[in-house]
Specification:
Mean pLDDT: 89
Radius of gyration: 26 Å
Low-confidence stretches: none
Shape: globular
CATH architecture of the largest domain: 3-Layer(aba) Sandwich
CATH topology of the largest domain: Rossmann fold
Length: 542
């Protein structure tokens, strides 16, 4: 279906890919993974024909159609929403345009051509194009009232959803997507997971959402050492198998039969939990055929995240009464929010509008004034805040060592050796610790903010979208550190696994009030009674 032959990419002296050969076949979903800078997005651009390799070629089977999730959110501003989705099937859209143009200048001479085009159009299911496009939009949370709006007139976050519908439209033979879950809420991500898990053609996706990769992927394509290696199974299987390979390599004296037994038990455990999709049976067979030499330890580096508290908090953490917030133009984000946060609570804050959860954090941190209501922190608490927008922390042109020194509390913590060691744990080793804070990437800034949080040793962590910009390795390390954190956590995230493994309480902020339950995230999202309540509070299906 789609293959890459002898592909090499080099930028100056840096070799990104070296003689890569890989094939992608129908009925499979391939998750492209790799450390930051490994070349994931570059590889997708080469597959899509947007970038050229230094050498080698990409071969798509003749007659097959590739669809790519568009990253330029303003590319279709001159088109309507529904029209933008139909444009995803370029051959169909071009025929539709030609038919419309011929009808606009109708004559006996072009009547025959119109008839020919209409036959082809019908064979391509063109008469149902608008209704199919509308169904996709509705499933992705775009209400019917917006279907005939201009792309230029809708919110940027909604544009992302329209472009996703465009990529999915028309059942493409090869679907290529870079971070498709960005700016989607949990309900929409769940719909997309179900859609892709049962998709019969080829899917190639880059995502930092581990639950999403687990739900949709039949294979993992790992970019490491300038090569791309394919592994059967989803992301969790790849991660655990690479860790198993690393452990077995470290145990040089372990007998071959012991290693084989450990691998077999590992495979059986994962084979029993494959996703319930059309690919499940074939995936299980592939896993059972796996041999120890097929899995390799990864070169990935994981940051060392350990959150300690300066003191233990008492029983009263946070009390809030009747909190309310709105936008500058008066749109209510949430109201009637009554919360008592107790010792040990790790609460995930939900809202269908991310502005609501951010406003909630800004109010609790004292950066924004509530429209109504009040709140009070417990006297034994001290809070540390990781905002979704951290740009204000990186406006000065100082080194990372000096940047981190701003939050050092003791003379020891102010010493350069101590600070460099701290930064080294966060993968800023050697000369990287002297980089200017103003030139960091998004992921590097978040790692710096996490260093700051660790240094503050707060007993309440407030975290707004922590996985934004982080790679899978940093997300995994961060997730694991919060699971064992002894204090309180209030956080938002679009990472399903993060929410499920960290939170013991779910607090949802709506324009009609609060829904507050001591449940795991998955229990909350699957409870029919809560779903009914959510629909009532939002006044829309969820």
């Amino acid at each position: 279906m789609l293959s890459v032959s002898n592909l090499s990419v080099q930028f100056g002296k840096r070799v990104l890919f070296d003689e890569v050969n890989v094939s992608f076949t129908p009925g499979n979903c391939y998750g492209i993974i790799g450390a930051n800078g490994a070349g994931k997005s570059t590889f997708l651009k080469i597959l899509a024909g947007k970038d050229d390799p230094t050498s080698g070629q990409v071969l798509l089977e003749p007659g097959k159609r590739m669809s790519v999730l568009e990253q330029n959110h303003n590319a279709n501003n001159q088109h309507g929403v529904l029209e933008t989705v139909v444009m995803g099937n370029k051959p169909l859209f071009e025929i539709k345009q030609e038919i419309d143009a011929l009808y606009a200048d109708y004559s006996d001479e072009n009547a025959e051509r119109i008839g020919e085009l209409q036959v082809v159009f019908e064979e391509m299911n063109g008469w149902n194009a608008d209704s199919d496009a509308a169904a996709l939009l509705s499933n992705l949370g775009i209400t019917e009232t917006l279907h005939y709006s201009q792309m230029a007139d809708i919110d940027a976050k909604l544009k992302v959803r329209v472009l996703l519908a465009q990529a999915l439209f028309g059942n493409p033979d090869v679907l290529v997507m870079d971070e498709p879950t960005n700016n989607l809420d949990y309900d929409t991500i769940s719909w997309l997971e179900r859609f892709l898990a049962n998709y019969e053609n080829t899917v190639i996706v880059v995502s930092h959402d581990r639950h999403f990769l687990d739900a949709v992927c039949t294979h993992i394509a790992d970019i490491d050492f300038g090569k791309i290696n394919l592994y059967s199974g989803n992301y969790s299987f790849w991660y655990e198998s690479s860790q198993l390979a690393a452990r077995q390599r470290a145990q040089q004296n372990k007998k071959a039969e012991d290693k084989a037994k450990e691998l077999q038990e590992f495979i059986q455990r994962f084979s029993a939990n494959v996703a319930k999709s059309k690919q499940a049976t074939s995936r299980k067979k592939m896993l059972e055929k796996l041999k120890i030499e097929d899995i390799k330890p990864s070169s990935r580096r994981y940051p060392a995240l350990i959150f300690e508290t300066e003191r233990e908090a008492g029983n009263q953490i946070l009390h809030a009464e009747r909190l309310q917030a709105s936008t500058e133009d008066g749109e209510i984000l949430f109201k009637n929010i009554d919360i008592n946060l107790a010792k040990g609570d790790k609460a995930v804050i939900l809202s269908k509008d991310s502005r609501a959860s951010t406003a909630f954090f800004e109010i609790l941190k004292g950066h924004k004034k509530a429209d109504a209501g009040s709140f009070q922190w417990g006297v034994t608490t001290n809070q540390s805040y990781l905002p979704a927008d951290n740009s204000s922390f990186f406006e000065t042109d100082i080194s990372l060592v000096d940047w981190l020194r701003q939050w050092a509390k003791t003379e020891e913590e102010k010493e350069e050796v101590y600070l460099r060691g701290f930064l080294g744990k966060m993968l800023f080793s050697g000369e990287e610790a002297l980089k200017k804070s103003s030139v960091l990437s998004g992921g590097e800034k978040v790692r710096c903010m996490l260093s700051r949080m660790m240094m503050l040793k707060a007993n309440v962590l407030m975290i707004d979208e922590p996985t934004n910009h982080l790679d899978l390795e940093s997300i995994t390390a961060f997730n694991n550190s919060l699971k064992i954190f002894k204090g309180n956590i209030i956080f938002t995230t679009h990472d399903h696994q993060f929410a499920q493994t960290v939170a013991n309480r779910v607090i949802e902020l709506t324009p009609s009030g609060v829904i507050d339950r001591y449940l795991s995230f998955e229990e909350y999202m699957s409870d029919p009674a809560i779903r009914e309540l959510r629909e009532k509070y939002y006044a829309v299906p969820v």
